[in-house]
Every structure is written in C-alpha cells, then in structure tokens.
C-alpha cells in the first residue's frame, strides 16, 4: 500500500506535516450508502463535525484515477452526484487508477489509504462484516481482513445490522482486530443501540483511546486496527420493531431479485431508507456525525499525547 500513488489535499498535507489532528472519512457512504440529494449535504456536515471538534477532515476517494486524501468540495460534489462512481475496496484501487475511474472508497480501502498517508483515526457509520448466509455464500466484507493488517482506529456504531453480528465479532477476534466499546460493554448494532453481544473492554474518554493506541505501539502491536464502537443513545435508535420488519423485507427482496456481491450492502441500505420513509436515513446521519465528532476528539487526544512525548 505504501507505494500507492496518493495525492494529499493541501490542508491535510499541512496538518500531517505539523502533527495536527486529522480524521479520515470514507466516500462509499456518500456515493453508495446515502440517497441523493441528501448525501452531499451530509458529506459536508460530516467534515464540519470533524472541524468543530478541532481536527482536519480527510475524505478519501478516487477522482479520474487519482487517489485523493482530502477531497476538495468540487471533488466531493462529483463523487456525490455523478453516475458511475465505482465502489472501491482495496483490490479495486489499482484497476480504478489505471483506467482513470471515479471511485468511492469503502472502510477497507479508506483504512488502507489513510494508514499509508500517516492518518491514525477514521470515522465511519458501520463496518462491513460477515453477511447472513455467509456459510453458503462466503460473503464476508474485505473490511475485516484489511483491518487485520492496517494500523488505524476506526470509530463506528458497530457493524451494520444487516449482517451476522455474532459471526463478525468472532472473525474480528480471529483476525486480531481490537474492539473497545465507547462508554459501553455492549456491542452496538448500527441502527440499534445494542446488537446483543458483550464486549471485553470499554473506554471512557478520547484520552483513554489515545492511551490504548499508545499502549499498542509500546507493546509492539503495529499491524491491526482498533474498532472503537460508539453506540447511539437508546432514545435515538431506530425503533427495533420497525428495524426487524424492514430487515426481513429487505433480505427477502434481496433473494427475490438475486442481488449478490458488492451490491448487497447498498441495496439493503437503500431499502431501509425508502421503506422507513427516511427514519433510517435520519438515524444513519446521526450515527455518522456522532462518530465524526468522537473520532476528531480522539485525533486531538492522540496529537496532544504525541506532543507530550516528543516536546
Ligand atoms: N456503513 C454505512 N454505510 C455504508 C457502508 C458502511 O453506514 O455505505 C459501506 C462501507 O463503505 C463499508 C461497505 O466498507 O459499506 C461494506 O461493503 P461490503 O459489505 O460490500 O464490503
Ligand atoms: Mn461482500
């Protein structure tokens, strides 16, 4: 990854050079996870949430074959509004670059590119993971194996509730990806506050996440990611009955229409947004904005701790 050609936005380049806090943001949620026209407005709000908490946003994506860390507003607008933006996981970066494609990076690709650019904190909505029926389909997001080898803290509301959450937690354990709850010992379920699984570790503050990251480095752990699971408050979650009903319908429609592969996640998210008449969209936006805020505060704490160690 490190020799992949990356072009840094000027604000991001300045911040990285000066050791100021930077938060990576993905573009797949913008191009494929949120409906137009809300997606562009939300993409800008996510960046603003990072700024409001004192860090520089670096939204990552590919524009005409150029891999950008820190899209400018014209580039962000392009990825949010033009047709034919590819969904890029790590393996897609090279063919997309070589063919001059426009592409939005997933959690996997964003993590890999951010880490290669020297960014240590990333905010998203929900991770990809093991799909239901994966025992037959083998459908497991590349987000998981990528996090096994990529040193980055990912702030998310757990994994998407459309997945097999228990199996995903097992795979994160096998792959050596750290998971800590933010002020909770229960793993969040994206649209839902609680996915029904216990966690071994919780952290209480952005500073404590920075301590965990410093302890990893001190103990020679340089490869894997750290998932910081940040649940929605219970009174902001999607109504659980509506959630379960919508998911059941979505999974049935998926099977009926024969949707497979990388189209599965966008299909189900878009089903949620239309079937709940925007309720899931509002929740999804809240999730991302809260994660962007927490990620920025973590990046601020990490930068402050680094300054204390190397005055
Ligand atoms: N979380 C969201 N919306 C999204 C995604 C995650 O709230 O659109 C995207 C992320 O980019 C994640 C991808 O990496 O879905 C996973 O897709 P797949 O299951 O095909 O790996
Ligand atoms: Mn998949």
Automatic annotation (TrEMBL):
GO terms for molecular function: hydrolase activity, acting on glycosyl bonds; metal ion binding; pseudouridylate synthase activity. Mn(2+) binds at residue 139. GO terms for biological process: nucleobase catabolic process. Its cofactor is Mn(2+). The active site is at residues 26, 160. Substrate binds at residues 87, 107, 141-143. Keywords: Glycosidase, Hydrolase, Lyase, Manganese, Metal-binding. InterPro entries: Indigdn_synthA-like (IPR022830), PsuG (IPR007342). The keyword Cytoplasm does not apply. It catalyses: D-ribose 5-phosphate + uracil = psi-UMP + H2O. One of its GO terms (cellular component) is cytoplasm. Its EC number is 4.2.1.70. It comes from the Bacteria. Binds 1 Mn(2+) ion per subunit. Homotrimer. Belongs to the pseudouridine-5'-phosphate glycosidase family. HAMAP family: PsiMP_glycosidase (MF_01876). Catalyzes the reversible cleavage of pseudouridine 5'-phosphate (PsiMP) to ribose 5-phosphate and uracil. Functions biologically in the cleavage direction, as part of a pseudouridine degradation pathway. This is Pseudouridine-5'-phosphate glycosidase. It comes from Micromonospora marina. The gene is psuG.
């Amino acid at each position: 990854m490190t020799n992949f050609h990356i072009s840094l936005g000027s604000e991001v380049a300045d911040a990285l050079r000066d050791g100021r806090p930077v938060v990576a943001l993905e573009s797949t949620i913008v191009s494929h996870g949120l409906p137009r026209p809300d997606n562009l407005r939300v993409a800008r709000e996510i960046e603003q949430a990072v700024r409001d908490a004192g860090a520089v946003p670096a939204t990552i994506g590919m524009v005409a074959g150029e891999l950008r860390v820190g899209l400018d507003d014209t580039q962000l607008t392009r990825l949010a509004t033009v047709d034919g933006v590819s969904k890029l996981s790590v393996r897609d970066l090279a063919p997309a670059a070589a063919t001059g494609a426009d592409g939005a990076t997933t959690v996997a690709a964003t993590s890999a590119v951010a880490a290669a650019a020297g960014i240590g904190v990333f905010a998203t909505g929900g991770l990809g993971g093991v799909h239901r029926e994966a025992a037959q389909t083998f459908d497991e997001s590349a987000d998981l194996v990528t996090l096994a080898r990529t040193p980055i803290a990912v702030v998310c509301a757990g994994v998407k509730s459309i997945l097999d959450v228990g199996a995903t937690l097992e795979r994160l354990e096998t792959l050596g990806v750290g998971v800590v709850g933010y002020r909770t010992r229960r793993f969040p379920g994206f649209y839902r506050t609680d996915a029904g699984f216990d966690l071994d570790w919780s952290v209480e503050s952005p500073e404590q996440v920075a301590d965990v990251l410093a302890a990893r480095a001190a103990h020679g752990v340089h490869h894997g990611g750290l998932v910081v699971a940040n649940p929605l408050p219970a009174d902001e979650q999607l109504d659980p009955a509506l959630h379960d009903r919508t998911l059941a319908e979505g999974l049935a429609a998926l099977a009926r229409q024969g949707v497979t592969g990388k189209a599965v996640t966008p299909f189900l998210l878009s089903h949620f947004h239309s079937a709940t008449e925007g309720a899931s969209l509002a929740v999804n936006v809240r999730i991302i904005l809260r994660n962007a805020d927490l990620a920025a505060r973590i990046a601020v704490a990490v930068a402050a701790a680094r300054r204390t160690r190397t005055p």
